[in-house]
Amino acid sequence: MSLARGRRVVIIGSGKTAMDCASGLLVSRCAASVTLLYRSAHWPVPRSVLGIPVRRLLFSRAVASMLPPYYTASCVDRAVHAIVRPLKRLFWRGLECAINKKLHMGNGKLEAPPVGLPGDLFYGGQILDDSGAEMMHCEQLTAIKGEINKFVRNGVILLDGTFRPADVILYCTGYNKSYDYLEADLRLKLEVQKDGLYLYRNCLPPHVRHLAFVGSEVSGKTIQSVARKRSANGKGRPSRNP
C-alpha cells in the first residue's frame, strides 16, 4: 500500500487478484488513480444480487439445475434441457442484467464480458469482497480494454497509441500451465491431456508414485498438503484397481 500511496497505478489483468488489488487501493483511498488494463473481462459477482446473498443465489441445487447438462448426462436429461433451454437463458440473462445495473459496468468501467455468466463462472468468474461493489463506483477507477505496446518514463503506451500515465504498474495476469520442465518419460507416465493433467483429488497422479502437485489445479493448498503427507505415509494413495 505504501508504494502506491498518492500515485497513479496501472493494474494489468481483470482476474480475482487484479480486482482485489484495485479494490484495496481504491476503497482505502491510497492511490491517486487506478487503471485496470485487460484483454478480456470477467463477470464480477457482488455479494448480493437483487437483495439475495450470492451464496444462496448461485450455490444451490435450484441454480445448478439451470446449468447445461454434464457430458455424461442421459438422453432424458438432455431432452429436458432442450425443452427448458429458453427458461434457463432468461434466468442467466436476467442475472447478468442485474449485475450490470448494480455495478454500472461500461461507461469507463469494466465492460460486459463476451462469455455468458454461467460459462465464465467455471473458469474466470469472481465473487467480489464487501468493498468490490463500492470500488466499481469510484471516480478514480478507469477500465481500459487493450494491451501495452511499450513502457515510457512516466507511463505506458498501448497498442492503439493511447498513452496512460503510471507511477506504479502491477502485473496480475493469468498463465498457461506447462509440464515441459518434466522429463519426457515422466510426462508419458502422467498421461498429460490437451485440457490438462488428471489428478486424484486434484493432487496425486495415480500412475506416478512419490509425486504430487499441491495447489496446481484448485485452491485448497492446506488440505492438499495434509493429503500429501498421508500419501507419503502410505495412506490414501489411489489405486488403478477398481
Automatic annotation (TrEMBL):
<keyword id="KW-0285">Flavoprotein</keyword>
<protein>
    <recommendedName>
        <fullName>indole-3-pyruvate monooxygenase</fullName>
        <ecNumber>1.14.13.168</ecNumber>
    </recommendedName>
</protein>
<keyword id="KW-0274">FAD</keyword>
<comment type="similarity">
    <text>Belongs to the FMO family.</text>
</comment>
<dbReference type="InterPro" id="IPR036188">
    <property type="entry name" value="FAD/NAD-bd_sf"/>
</dbReference>
<dbReference type="InterPro" id="IPR050982">
    <property type="entry name" value="Auxin_biosynth/cation_transpt"/>
</dbReference>
<dbReference type="Pfam" id="PF00743">
    <property type="entry name" value="FMO-like"/>
</dbReference>
<dbReference type="GO" id="GO:0050660">
    <property type="term" value="F:flavin adenine dinucleotide binding"/>
</dbReference>
<dbReference type="InterPro" id="IPR020946">
    <property type="entry name" value="Flavin_mOase-like"/>
</dbReference>
<dbReference type="GO" id="GO:0004499">
    <property type="term" value="F:N,N-dimethylaniline monooxygenase activity"/>
</dbReference>
<keyword id="KW-0560">Oxidoreductase</keyword>
<dbReference type="GO" id="GO:0050661">
    <property type="term" value="F:NADP binding"/>
</dbReference>
<dbReference type="GO" id="GO:0103075">
    <property type="term" value="F:indole-3-pyruvate monooxygenase activity"/>
</dbReference>
